[in-house]
Amino acid sequence: MPLYRVVKRALLGAIEGGTYSPGSSLPSESELAGAFGVSIGTLRKAVDELSAEHLLVRRQGRGTFVASHSADRFLFQFFHVERADGLREVPSVELVSFERVRADEEVASALRLRAGDAVFQIDNRLLLQRRAVIYDRLTVSAALFKGLNEKRLRERSGTIYQMYQTEFGISVVRALERARATAVDRQIARVLGLPLGQAVMQVRRTALSFGDRPVEYRCSTINTAQHDYVNRLSKPNLGAA
Amino acid sequence: MPLYRVVKRALLGAIEGGTYSPGSSLPSESELAGAFGVSIGTLRKAVDELSAEHLLVRRQGRGTFVASHSADRFLFQFFHVERADGLREVPSVELVSFERVRADEEVASALRLRAGDAVFQIDNRLLLQRRAVIYDRLTVSAALFKGLNEKRLRERSGTIYQMYQTEFGISVVRALERARATAVDRQIARVLGLPLGQAVMQVRRTALSFGDRPVEYRCSTINTAQHDYVNRLSKPNLGAA
DNA sequence: CCCAATTTGTTCGTATGTATA
DNA sequence: TTATACATACGAACAAATTGG
Fold first, then answer.
1. CA separation for the pair B227, B185 (Å, rounded)
2. Which of residues 38-67 of B touch A (CB under 8 A)?
3. Helical axes B29-36 vs B40-52, angle rounded to 10°
4. Does this model's pTM top 0.70?
């Protein structure tokens, strides 16, 4: 393994282990290079990759920071719904229900648990422009999120992923999504104000932390009458003309 | 603009202009650096970005090549449907119809044409494991693809994007996709063997060439009974343990 | 099978530019 | 203004992969 990857792993371990906490700044590149006993170019290459993976954020003149879950990051990295005309907006979230239940096969498989293990099941309604557009069912391991309850969930400030991070030390770093179309069932039709049987999109997301450890399974039901699910592919990096 | 971006633009222009054609190799890094009068590190940074954007492919010991549209590239960069169990497969394509028609508002807007401009409208049926799963309607400008006809389309070897590239000198470099759920209409229901009104996914893709120039508008209708639309997000680059 | 030439990949170190506080 | 941090640019040396003899 090349040296810069060794350094990258070490940095990753330090971030994961809490040596550098979300939002805080790392030592300067020259300090880090010195500490690892590598050249500054090698250190930079390690940071380059972590930065491309959204784990670090670099700011010229200021420093390098551990990425934290701002509303902006949520919008651009994890929220894939926008209005048909392209308007992007942070959704407002309404908690519908909070329950402690047993994992079924699907959830257990996604979260690498055993069927029957205790999980928290959180149902949310997401509003865009004051209209209910998405119904989310989040499932997380009760063992991993020990002490989570409805009160803490309601009283959080910021996004759910921000709460995972600040209150449980769990950082969601990326997600896998699989989408399909289906006819809406009665419960969700009611919550989203749709006729029964309307075609809706269902997006199943597994949110991963360091080392691809699954920490949340989410099934989103989207009313795509006025909105689209957007797949943001790699954008070239050309700079201004 | 930093020097490496100047070099990048120059390389991009040379690729776009056909100085280096798809599949062919570029001069070695040291030659290019010499030709541009920059250091090898600066040249490498330009190539790094073009490589990250899938416009160039580097192979240690062999050289740097202009990306071409292989079946593999199609599968990983542009084909987002896989079986629910994760099986990925290059679809087999059956031409359903080829017509020369007038662009409607939607197509014209996507392709930056005027409504009423001549376009080719190509309907394809895509099979996975011998079952029809996707119905594609491709629209391209007749002016841009001058001389395209059903015969040439049928007799192509390889993917459609490969044909765009080799026969028309048009390289699709990235794509934007917006998905929604809808009830299947009669025509497509018949072609995909679905009951009328079944919920299906509809994916509208605008395929872009250099400089974000739109070259194809594609509306895919997907039967998601056994398959999912997958959003491949950034994967970390950790190498083996 | 091995060797030599070629090409990209990695690592080093230094100097200078640019943004921020 | 000054100090600090990241960004860019240079050049050199060696490693690793590939190819052809």
1. 19
2. 49, 52-54
3. 110
4. yes
